[in-house]
Fold each of these.
Amino acid sequence: MLEIRNLFVTYRDEPAVRDLSLTLGEGEILTLVGPTGCGKTTTLRAVAGLEHPSAGEIRIGDLRIDKDRFVPPEKRRTGLVFQDFALFPHMTVEQNVAFRLKDREPVDHWLRLLGLEGHRHAMPDTLSGGQKQRVALARSLAHGPALVLLDEPLSNLDASLKASLRWEIRDALKAAGVPAIWVTHDQAEALSVGDRMGVMQGGRLEQIGPPEDCFREPASRFVAQFLGEAAFLPGEHADGFVQTALGRYPAHGGERLGRQVDVLVRPDDLSVGPVEPGNGEIEWGQYEGETRLYGVRLREGPMLRVRVNHETHLQRGDPVEMRIAAGHPLALFAPEGR
């Protein structure tokens, strides 16, 4: 449905997207995530026809686009959903969704499916942010696009709405069977809604794959640190295991690295409990509601963060025993500077 080959997009002689290649299957949702200025929105705009490729090729179905063969946005059968909703303020919800449509059946279908039937005759300025985004999505899907492009669709909404609306949007895309690229800066959003995710930095695609693979087996330190809270514990690798200050554990990917490695550990990979004398002590603690986050200074090693149930109460200076509790092999990296 979509194939991008070696795409470059240049602004003022500076590449904003560099040698990017990916494919998108039928009905697949791909989330693109990365820091501000990494090229994810530029990639989306190039697919939509709002930016011209400097090099490379974009294929949407039978359409082929490159720097010498430009296809205007209206010819690409792509539906666009923006963070600012882009609704016509002088039109009702129904008129927005039906804009330039002769067939009313898809209009009624998506108004009903997205819970907008009761707002059919409402004006956009009377709607909540979540309702406006549903209207924008209904308008996009009612036109039968070959591809839907979503640019930060939840960034203008309250935090309380984001978790539920992300699933409503995902369910609607799946019901339509239409592939989609969903650009976001929110790691939790990207991990939860994408069938696959791509992580970008400096205009390049650092890693693409199932969200769980990107999180558990990051291709670089950047991906590891961008997707959640990451710390690196020195260790020695041999025979599929790594020896650390916290003990010996299974690990993968160390064969190419040599004996000295850094082990990726996240707060949820660790456990901690009060033990005298223990292998570390509490340096600080933060209450998070359902959980508590503690900083533990190891007696032999760095400070690590561990997340525990909110009922676990530890004080600064308490001796503790920290262990790796992950049920999966640990990811390994070459020590920095090597």
Amino acid sequence: MPDAIERRRNVAPWWGLLFAIGAIGCNAAFFASPPLQGMLPWLSLSFVVLALIFLVTGLRRAFGQGHVYRGKVLSVVLTVIALIPVGLAAFVFVSARRLPSSTAAPQVGQKVPDFTLSDTLGRPVSLDQLLAPASSSSSSVSFSESRAPKAVLLIFYRGYW
């Protein structure tokens, strides 16, 4: 039977799914602060591109060369499943590029300029006022309000809204 063609497995969609999961893994690894952290978004983007190449190749093999490659349904299912992490990784890559630069953000240990914000009762309170030693002339001030704090914890959220 020389005309019989041996049907092969279509492994390209599996590789596409693997690279799609790797792209999400790169985005998750970014928060672990590994060495060369700045390269992880680009590695994630390259995994997205490789995943798309393998997914398109798998679909072409399944539908264009169906007599050689088996697994049309599995190829479509894997492609649809892999497109979810691919889309998410691409969205994160594009969204991260829109964030403003953090070069002007205060660094750890840097002295913060004075500012004024409202407290829980709506009264304005400045940083200098918080750190200033309390005057002992007012006897109606409670014990907790009579001592200045040694430090103030400030939390900065990067982003815009």
Amino acid sequence: MQAVILAGGRGERLRPQTDTVPKSMTPVKGKPFLEHQILLLKKAGISDFLLLTGHLSNVIESHFREGSKLKVHIEYSVDSHPLGSGGAVKNAAKLIQNDFLLINGDAVTPMDYKDMITQYKTQSIPILMTAYDNHDKLIPNNIRVEPDLTITGYNRNNPNGMTHIESGILAIKSFVFFRMMPETSVFSIEDDVYPKLNRYRLMKAFVTDKPFYDINVPERLKKLGEILA
């Protein structure tokens, strides 16, 4: 499968570092965070990557180029101005394959992606979302997973009725996903696409006990250094 990574964020909470280095290129144990992501996906047999970039996109392209250094293939879709998570995917439509993984470029879940891809393919699921079971209860739940693994709710502001946490990883049939997008060019997947997918019960959960780790605030970078190789 193709891996599409959202790597265009400005990283306001990591400034002033992100004035000159894209958030996804934040150094962790001597490597850019995005490189750790790509290598983890490569272990699952993924070799085809599409990076959705924006802020300081030239820094990302200069480091990875076409991907030969990591023995993968990398393409780029560059947003000339902020489009939101949904708009960035829509802008890259011509480069996106029929089946793809969509991954946030500022968080990583150290899980075996092969298991998720197997569930997605064998069960012919339109959209499969990785859902952390949140056994440690360190942060509030934001999605509701039914007993049959259908996802029927998303609310990042109110955890009442929510059962799991979205980990920022989706396996997607593109023809379904793009049909749920609004007509506008600037929009959010979470706010503008998830409600439609939930209404039509098009999303299932891949439940994992592996928490995700993000780089949105400086104090989390130390923890990441302990997790990533």
Amino acid sequence: MTVATRLDLPPFTRLRRLRNTPALRRMVRETQLSPADFIAPFFVTHGRGVRQPVSSMPGVFQLSVDELVREVRTLGPLGVPAVLLFGLPASKDALGSEAYARDGIVQQAVAAIKDATPETVVVTDVCLCEYTDHGHCGVIEGDRVLNDPTLDLLARMALTHVEAGADIVAPSDMMDGHVAALRVALDAAGHEQTPILGYSAKFASAFYGPFREAAESAPRFGDRRSYQMDPANGREALREVQADIDEGVDIVMVKPALSYLDVIRAVRDRFDFPIAAYNVSGEYAMVKAAAANGWLDERAVALEILTSIKRAGADLIITYHAADAARWLSA
């Protein structure tokens, strides 16, 4: 093949020079993804030897405490430092009583993990939706979710998690003042060193569908749009983050991640604060479904998505791909 004669061009920048080899590309890579960035979420239920698949989330299970501990043990050698726990109670009631019972399922799971792998950072979700018979995140009156009466229950829930050994508590309910309520309760009980990871900008997203199957937490009536954020509102997200910071949060979160990369970047630009982002169930399920149909390469796409979340400004990424991504990164 004859190569065309070089044109007489003015000077131009040759950005391709640093893309010629894998080694060169690694040397100048701006965003470095690491297993240390990941938090692995789990759903824990009562019983022994329980490993119930979640149909809409291939590779994700409802796990009994013994099976959960088995899974958590595999994460340390992979470099994944932390887990996030969601509980499925033995029974539900209007006030979500098991959420703040000292022998509740999450409280049992926390103690078991800290006994088996004390180096694992255990983060607990603080919300009532999995525990209430109506499926909403707070106390209800008629068809209304009441803000202030919910705060006391959330504070009690967080306190039992910390007493069981939780390292970080993460309120996801989106009640106004929830970080302040947890901070006051924890400090009063001598847990002033326990960090709070706030679901600071949590949107009322359609991407949560598979999670609601996994956590059995779909609302029995209405929806959560009166307390979770309108997906159209980016500027309001900054107000939510600022409110959590003012109330004493230690890490802020944007949820979901993939459709809200602009919000992650806006939070990164505005606040000098640790930022987490939740690569949520619907984002995971879409990749799994497309990969199962042979439409895309799961490994390549998952790592690209996780890299984009970190590039947008997240320091920590909650992802159901945590274990697989850690293996892929070390391969």
